[in-house]
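Example (one chain per record):
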Amino acid sequence: MTQKHEYFTSRFGLIAAAIGMAIGAGNIWRFPRLAGQYGGSFLIPWIIFLFLWSIPLLIVEFSIGKQAKFGTIGAFCKAVGKKYTWMGWFVGFCTTAILFYYSVVCGWSLKYFVLSVSGELFTIDHQVYWDNYTASIYEPVFYHLVSVFLGAFIIYRGIVSGIEKFSKIIIPALFILLIIAAIKAVSLQGADVGLHYLFNIEPAQLCNYKIWLEALSQSAWSTGAGWGLLLTYAIYAGKDEKIVGNSFLVGIGNNIASIIAALAIIPTVFALSAGIESARQALDSGNQGLAFIAIPQLFSKMEAGIFFSTIFFLALFFAALSSLIAMIELAVRVLIDFGISRKKAVALISILTALFGAPSAASLNFFNNQDWVWGLGLLLSGFFFTFAVIKIGVEPFIKNWLKPGKGQSIFILIFKILFYFILPIEFIFMLGWWLIQSLQWYPETWWNPFETFSLGACLLQWTIIIITGLLFNKKFVKLLKINSNY
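Predicted structure:
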């Protein structure tokens, strides 16, 4: 069954949607935390890996999506070969598994936005409130369901009336909110200490291997490279859309948003904390601790704190929601490729997200486990895109999938260096480092799949999904052939 194919009506709409896909909660809570932990030295490897990991993979995703006109499963089938269809299944499942708990993050942001608007945020003990809220089950599940409904409603309306229209409004609004928050932050008395800390580069820090691996991980997760999200949006790109140029805009736009978020948070933390050590402790309080405990505590000390906390949590909600709709669209597109209508696909994915996201809403330990397993799973997804280029061959990929026009020989040389050498090494070091850390966290029970951050949890869940993909590989190919223009 052939379904009507929509296209983004403007380049601005496509870029806004793609940047919205990339900008998420990680830009607003993880990047400032890492920049605060390592200082300005962190920015150097973070920028380097934008060009040595993220943008190359974004280019590959955009190329394959635009040419194949399939979601992740069909794209790997068509671009890499039928027997590698299971890789597209893993990529699609990994991002969908993240969707199941990312809606919870979206719900947290919405809840704290409501708290800010009402003024209740400044009448509570923030640590106690956060602990009670996340343990309450009913409220987190309710806001999780609201977030799923909002995301599904946008996707239900389609590419033009849904995703494009939403992105044209929300993404500029997100940048405006972050800029307002940043202007206020840098104007605070004592903010200069935070600014100096954010941009001060200590050469000795660059000898610390951890800063490089953290920067690589942040770039990989923050930009959405290797998630299959840009591949999905590229399906709806017009034939004249520039693959390389658009991919650069997405990566650079994501990093700019991260810098603005850091300007909004780090000077605020240093200006309102009781000394540098207190500021560092706040920045080192973890993603959730920084966003939902430390930041509200600091805003309560600020003049017009209610207004600026509202801006902060609205920006966080917009960032989370823009990524959420990209994840929903990825899952929906896979079902569309199998012949299911958009309306039915949206309904099915919404129900699955509501059901499978509920455990993460009800249990912070379950949430953390899924974030650990499938966050690392994204590194495998990135490697599968790297493998795709290696399997196709750099020269055939450039000529048949990327088609850059002038300068093909330069692209071929750069891609050979990147995909035959640099990206595989980055993958090995990045995945290996995180797994070794897990062994150190659980030296006695690293194998236990029920430990939150264990190696055993990753290996068990990854193995189940990979074996499922291998078993159903031929079935996927058959369904694509029957129900699509394969």
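Caption: The domain at 11-483 is CATH 1.20.1740 (Amino acid/polyamine transporter I).
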